[in-house]
Each structure stands twice: as structure tokens, then as C-alpha cells.
Amino acid sequence: GPLLRLDSVNKVFPGGSVGLDSISLSIERGEFLSLLGPSGCGKTTTLRIIAGFEVPTSGRVLLDGKDITPLRPFDRPVNTVFQDYALFPNMNVQENIAFGLTLRGMSGRDRARKVKEALELVGLPDRAKAQIGSLSGGQRQRVALARALVCEPQLLLLDEPLSALDASLREHMQNELKRLQKELGTTFVMVTHDQTEALSISDRIAVMNKGHIEQIADPATLYDRPASKFVAGFIGTTNLLPGVFLQREPTGIRFQVAGDWRPVVTGSTELAAMAGTRLTIAIRPEDIVQMRKGDPDTFLGEISSIAFHGHSLRLLVKLGSSSLWVDVPRDRVETDIREGAVIALGLRAGACCPL
Ligand code: ADP
Ligand code: MG
């Protein structure tokens, strides 16, 4: 069975504000799972309930099938890396890392060996005696990781562990975290509000909104087949367009979208809808392609703005009363792209997701 299971966990705070609304979730051994969602959606509360710092109002927390809901934090084989690291400023690096081992009654040579291994693991073998105040943000982050990992928890919880780091170090540490997790085989549950971060390092992501889970899936599924408007809008950039289901055709379903455009959407033939049904169609900017004027199933739109995005240009295109984000790879521009120009656009096959 799964390593960790949350079974209908609710949290109502004193005063009546709802923190969590019936969260159920299974986490497999060795998995890297992220809790992703906007600020205030309940990510930290979920983590604190798993760690035991917070007691659920109802529901259970099961570890290895055993109900650990009543256990205190230090009686759980779980460690947490806090958002602000919570290092002890009056202790040096090795004392910080040794702290948990000392609490568990380990001392002498065993403890020294464990601390040394942990420092090597996080790439700080020569900073054992350094004071916390002399470390950079990235080094503090590594010490916090080492301190949590040295006790060999079955489950490591990380609350926005990289949010204090600048962009380039952050991307580097994302790779480090992933490598470390795979190397150790430890189960990680990480909280983040950064969808790029969640998509790049997680095996699975639980997308949270207002105290509940909207969807749990691997990154590609979340991106390609979002289960709700919220997920479609939160993961990456998405055009959410009102549409009408017109008819089934041999290659897919014909929708009317945004005025006069009637594209055939493939890959959604399992949709159990009837002609005339109103739906929202989610379309990624990279799934709209520039075509030649007059090609079948294209539509004409006017470019209202152009943003440089490295390997592509992101256009805002006016289409009737709607506006669409469209990514055009810079090496595949058909005609000159400029503000005010009218261009022909079409859909890539299988590129739409009706919600
Ligand atoms: P996130 O980590 O996703 O930003 P939190 O889990 O910290 O969100 O908070 C979820 C909701 O619960 C928020 O509305 C927050 O204000 C509320 N909340 C969190 N902790 C407490 C508390 N101790 N007392 C009252 N409300 C709280
Ligand atoms: Mg939080």
C-alpha cells in the first residue's frame, strides 16, 4: 500500500475559518509529490497535519497503514524543512545538523560520522564549523536539508524550500533536490506556489484551491488534460474560451469558438456531450499555429501585442470580442509579425481540452 494516506482530513480553525475541506491523498514510497496552489489554499496546513504540528478537526493520517493521527511530531518518522529554514543561529553548522541525532540519544563517533555524511550529501563538506550567520542563502538551505535528512526520515516534508533563493540558484537547487531525492529514495512532499518549480521536479502534483484538491496527476497530464478551469488557468498559460459543441465528425468534434471560428478538435471524442452544449475550451498558446490565409479551418485575428519569449514570440491576438495568447516559434514565422497585422491561425491536432 501507499506510504502515506490522508483520509478525509478536515481542518476548521478556532473562529470558524476553514483551512482544509476533506482532503484525501495517497503518496507512494519513493515518490516526489508537490502540493501546488495559490497563497492561502491550505498547503502549509496540510503539511503541518502530516508532520503532527496541527491536529485535524476530523479525518485520519495513516503512515504505512497505521493511524498516526494522535502521535506527536517527534514520535513520527517524519522531518520538515521549514520555509524560513528555522536554523539555530547560536549553533554552528555541524551542531545544527547533530541536534536531531542528540535528541534521539546518538552521540560520539556515530553522530560525528552521520553529520559528516550529511554535509557531503548536500555539498558542504568543508563548512562544518561555520557559523550560520556567515552562510549564503543557498548554503543555509543546504544545512536545513542536511539537518532534516540526517535522521533518515521515511518522509521528508518541505515547505517552499527554495522560495528565498534567487532565480538562477533556485533552478540549480531544484535539480539538486530532485537528484538527492532519487539517490536516497526518500519520499518527499514539497509545498510550492510556483507551478514551473512543481512541474519540473515532481513525480506527481496535487493542485489545491480553497482548502481542497482540484486534481492530482503527473505534470504532463496536468498540463495536457487539466480537470477543471482552475487547473487549466493555474498551470501554464491557457486560453479559456467559451465554445459550443456543434457536431461529431470523422476526425473529432467541431466546436464553435469565439465568434465565427469553427475548429475541429481531435483527441476529445470521448466527450459525452450533445450538440448545442456550451463548454469552455482550454487551448495552450503553443497549440495555435500560424497558417496561410485561406487554408481550411483557420481564422483571422489581429495582433494587438508582441512579447519576446526567447525561442518564441508570444502574441496577443484579437479574435471577435475575445483575445488569444498565441506562441509563434521564431524560426517558423510565416509572414511578418507586427502589431496591427492580420494573420491566419489554426489548431494543432489534439490540442484542445473541453472543460
Ligand atoms: P498556504 O500555505 O497554501 O498559503 P495555509 O495552509 O497557510 O495556506 O492557510 C490556509 C488557510 O487557513 C488560510 O485562509 C489561512 O488564513 C488559514 N489559517 C492557517 N493557519 C491558521 C490559524 N492558525 N488560525 C486561523 N486560520 C489559519
Ligand atoms: Mg504556506
TrEMBL record:
| Record key words, sorted | ATP-binding, Nucleotide-binding, Transport
Which GO terms fall under molecular function for this chain's record? ATP binding
Q: Tell me where in this chain the ABC transporter domain is found.
A: 4-235
Q: Which SUPFAM superfamilies match?
A: MOP-like (SSF50331), P-loop containing nucleoside triphosphate hydrolases (SSF52540)
Query: Which branch of life, at top level?
Result: Bacteria
Q: Name one Pfam family in it.
A: TOBE_2
- List the Gene3D superfamilies hit by this protein, alphabetically: 2.40.50.100, P-loop containing nucleotide triphosphate hydrolases
Enumerate the PROSITE patterns for this protein: ABC_TRANSPORTER_1 (PS00211), ABC_TRANSPORTER_2 (PS50893)
The cross-references to InterPro entries, in alphabetical order and at most eight, read: AAA+_ATPase, ABC_SmlMolc_Importer, ABC_transporter-like_ATP-bd, ABC_transporter-like_CS, Mo/tungstate-bd_C_term_dom, P-loop_NTPase, Transp-assoc_OB_typ2
Q: What PANTHER family does the record tag this protein with? A: SPERMIDINE/PUTRESCINE IMPORT ATP-BINDING PROTEIN POTA, SPERMIDINE_PUTRESCINE IMPORT ATP-BINDING PROTEIN POTA
Annotated protein name in UniProt:
ABC transporter ATP-binding protein
User: What species is given as this protein's source?
Assistant: Acetobacter sicerae
Query: What are the leading ranks of the lineage?
Result: Bacteria, Pseudomonadati, Pseudomonadota, Alphaproteobacteria, Acetobacterales
